[in-house]
Every structure is written in structure tokens, then in C-alpha cells.
Amino acid sequence: MDCGNGARARQHVFLLPEYLKDASKKMKSGLMFVKLVNPCSGEGTIYLFDMCLQQLFEIKIFKEKHHSWFINQSVQSGGLLHFATPVDPLFLLLHYLRKADKEGRFQPLEQVVVDDMFPNCILLLKLPDLEKLLQHVTEEKEIDKKKYYKYSKEKTIKWLEKKV
Predict the structure, then answer these.
(1) Rounded Cα–Cα distance for residues 126 and 32 (Å)
(2) Residue 13 pLDDT
(3) Which residue range or ranges hold the Rnh202 triple barrel domain (predicted)?
(4) Residue 2 and residue 9: Cα distance in Å, rounded?
(5) pLDDT digit string, tens, across residues 111-138
(6) Of 11, 69, 73, 139, which residue is least crowded by CB atoms under 10 Å?
(7) Domains of the chain by range and CATH?
(8) Residues 90, 136: contact at Cβ < 8 Å?
(9) Residues linked to residue 81 through DSSP beta bridges, in sequence order
């Protein structure tokens, strides 16, 4: 691709599950790269959000010195290899639930999953079966048809034990 000034657009090499490749062909806006908080480090990490399938993938980058890729008729320097690995979105939600637990009260999710540094965190609220996921790590109350949640350490430990 020519950028108009003689420079070529940078291209990247990704390893994706086959169904993601098909999803991107069917719906151009189906895949979205977003920067969200990494629950382990608290730093920003790039994730791939599949808007059609409502799935989340963490982008891992493999880098070695002195590698390049041949892409079509050009050589792309850098040799980075990007992997899209599925991630349980509940791990990302836990970051916000634990933070909100410091207040020690039940809150609606819209008040819990808020982040000025990573505003795309609200995409986590659009996940299918969100309420079912939250049952693993929260206590829940319903008042006037509105649901409120509070982090539960006990439930989280039980959920994590099943994951191992």
C-alpha cells in the first residue's frame, strides 16, 4: 500500500483462529483492537474484541532480533509475530470489581467498570452471559429491577480453583 509520500504502510503478521479470519471478511467492523488494563500488571495491553461473537483475545507479541517477513511483493522489517489468544473476560472484570470493593457496597456495573485511562473497558459490559459470569465472583442484589454487584473473595477463590 502506498501512503502517497513514497513510504509504504506498515504491515503486521497475525496468527488468528480461522473463525476470526472469516468473521472479519463478513463484517468489516466485526474486529476491534482496544487497549484495556492488564489485570496482572495494571498496565495497558492490546486486546482484540470480536464484536460479532462477543469474544475477547489478548494480543501477544513474539519478537526476535534480525527477522523480517515477506508479504506479497515486499519485505517487512521487524519480524514481529502477533498471536491472538482467547482470554476469559472475567479476569479483566475482576480488576474493576476488586477496585470497587474498597468502597464495601453493592454498585451497578456501570459504576464499577469505569476507567479514564482505558475508556473501552465499557465493551466488557456488552459480553453475552455477563450476569452468568458475574455469579462466579460477586454477590448480587436486585432493587427495583436494577442489579447491583459486590465482589466476593470466597466465590472468586472457588471459581479460580475450578480453573486450575
Answers:
(1) 14
(2) 67
(3) 26-88
(4) 6
(5) 999 999 999 999 999 887 888 999 999 9
(6) 73
(7) 1-87 (2.20.25.530), 88-164 (1.10.20.120)
(8) yes
(9) 13, 62
At 103, list the grid cell. 468502597
Cell of 99: 477496585
Provide the β-strand partners of residue 149.
107, 140
Show the cell assigned to 112: 464499577
The one-letter amino acid at 53:
L
